[in-house]
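Running co-folding for S-adenosylmethionine.
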Amino acid sequence: MPERLARQRPELADFWDHRFREGTTPWDAGRAPALLYDFAARYESIDGNGLCPASGRRWRVLLPGCGSAWEAAVLSDRGWETTALDFSVAAIAAARATLGDGWQGTLLCADFFSFDPEVPFDVIYERAFLCALPRRLWADYASRMAELLRRGGLLAGFFFLGDETGGPPFAIRQERLHELLATNFSCREDRPVDDSLPIFAGQERWQVWERR
Ligand SMILES: C[S@@+](CC[C@H](N)C(=O)[O-])C[C@H]1O[C@@H](n2cnc3c(N)ncnc32)[C@H](O)[C@@H]1O
């Protein structure tokens, strides 16, 4: 496919490579959001030692479509066993710049839909990933999330809600999100977000979904 056409298709890495390389990244907050710190602190306090009660080990977290990976740096610093993944080479370069050479986590240039982790995750962090995917990939997103999380594992993060017109970012109706995830997940938290970037303002919700 000609490069010019590939750059217009968000299901392809070229689309994102191009945007990272030209510095057009309006989704990039340049920091981890406050609600992530709040979430991490609450779950770390469950067993009193910051460990995952289900495994007795460090929380094992995946950040798919990690982009610049600000949140991966924070979670790793807190002691979480962190895997950050993106299929864009340019995004991975941005993540490497954020994380630095001595980073203790795993940074993977790979496709979310086909990479092969050794064991399921305790937590998958969502931010601006579902809304980066064309709507025809959403059913695959939901089944892949269910496959990658252990039972009782959490899909936690920010969902971009709204009328399903245009994109990216591809907004999703709240009812559709519930339909997508209800097969394998139960909603545990649903809160408004008050520090969204302009591109997401008024349309973001913090949600936590537990894998049944
Ligand atoms: C809108 S950006 C969000 C980046 C980051 N999550 C953030 O909040 O700043 C979407 C990211 O998802 C990545 N992405 C899209 N489809 C992907 C896939 N199938 N596998 C891995 N990464 C993907 C893109 O390369 C891009 O970096």
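Result summary
The chain has a mean pLDDT of 96.
Residues 28-211 form a domain with the Rossmann fold fold (CATH 3.40.50.150).
Job closed.
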